[in-house]
């Protein structure tokens, strides 16, 4: 079961159906769903429900106003993807290495596969779960910031940064992504490593696209 096939609206519909049913002991109507997720047209709601049934997330009894229920398969999926108390699941999107393009998806990042998630203490990310993702670090450019080769950085996806923040940035003209401290200096940006043996990178501000700000570092102990 893969929630990547669903739109943000469809995921919200699933969440509402589950929460409504648990709270009331019966499922919502089409109008209830439309009111909660901001869809005025019942036909649009019905279209999305048909998609959810087709993908196996919902079961629906025809000609019954409250004939909706989350499928057993989806319920099992929810249980598998419920983190232990005090932890949050964060999607692992790959590795960050200078010289290779990091593609951070637009829109919500979803948990699609057990191999693509890590558990992170919720106090490390300030209770945030939306737009948070993780990357494994290749290289030692941030070693003096306690970010070693093989460590995992947890980031919040954003396109702006303050001076001194550690960010993942895309150098658009090179198609390269790197992890550095960010400093805006006039029309230029200085990307500062935390390694005395490496020089800073100076680039035009228009050539920099911030991919995310580092919230936490998870150390790998061998």
Structure description:
- With 222 residues, the chain is an alpha+beta fold.
- The protein has two domains: 3-80, Arc Repressor Mutant, subunit A (Orthogonal Bundle); 87-218, Umud Fragment, subunit A.
- It contains four helices and eleven strands, in the order αααββαβββββββββ.
- It has helices at residues 8-24, 30-37, 42-54, 72-80, and strands at 58-60, 68-70, 87-96, 117-121, 132-137, 152-156, 166-171, 176-185, 188-192, 201-204, 208-218.
- The strands form two sheets. A nine-stranded mixed beta sheet has the order 4-3-5-6-11-7-8-9-10, with no helix packed on it.
- β9 (188-192) and β10 form a beta hairpin.
Overall shape: it is elongated
Mean pLDDT: 81
CATH homology superfamily name of the largest domain: Umud Fragment, subunit A
Overall CATH architecture of the largest domain: Ribbon
CATH topology of the largest domain: Umud Fragment, subunit A
| Beta strand count | 11
Order of helices and strands: HHHEEHEEEEEEEEE
| First and last CA, distance | 33 Å
- Class based on secondary structure composition and strand pairing: alpha+beta
How many domains, as an integer? Answer: 2
How many helical elements? 4
**Over the alpha carbons, how many angstroms does the gyration radius reach?**
21 Å
Specify the biggest β-sheet: 9 strands, mixed
In which range does the helix fraction lie? 10-25%
- Outline the low-pLDDT stretches: 105-114
**Main sheet: strand order:** 4-3-5-6-11-7-8-9-10
Strand content of the residues, in percent? Answer: 25-35%
CATH C-level class of the largest domain: Mainly Beta
């Amino acid at each position: 079961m893969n929630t990547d096939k669903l739109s943000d609206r469809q995921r919200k519909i699933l969440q509402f159906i589950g929460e409504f049913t648990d709270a009331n002991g019966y499922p919502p109507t089409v109008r209830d769903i439309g009111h909660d997720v901001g869809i005025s047209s019942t036909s649009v709601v019905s279209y999305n429900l048909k998609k959810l049934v087709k993908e196996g997330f919902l079961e629906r009894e025809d000609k019954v106003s409250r004939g909706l229920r989350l499928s057993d398969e989806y319920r099992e999926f929810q249980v598998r993807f419920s983190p232990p108390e005090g932890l949050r699941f964060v999607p692992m999107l790959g590795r960050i290495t200078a010289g290779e393009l990091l593609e951070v998806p637009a829109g919500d990042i979803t948990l699609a596969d057990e191999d693509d998630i890590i558990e992170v203490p919720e106090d490390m990310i300030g209770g945030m779960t939306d737009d948070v993702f993780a990357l494994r670090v290749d290289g030692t450019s941030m070693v003096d910031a306690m970010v070693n080769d093989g460590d995992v950085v947890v980031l919040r996806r954003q396109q702006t940064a303050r001076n001194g923040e550690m960010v993942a940035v895309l150098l658009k003209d090179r198609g390269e992504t790197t992890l550095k401290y960010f400093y805006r200096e006039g029309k230029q940006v200085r990307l500062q490593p935390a390694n005395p043996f490496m020089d800073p990178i100076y680039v035009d501000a228009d050539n920099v696209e911030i991919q995310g700000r580092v919230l936490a570092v998870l150390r790998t102990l061998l």
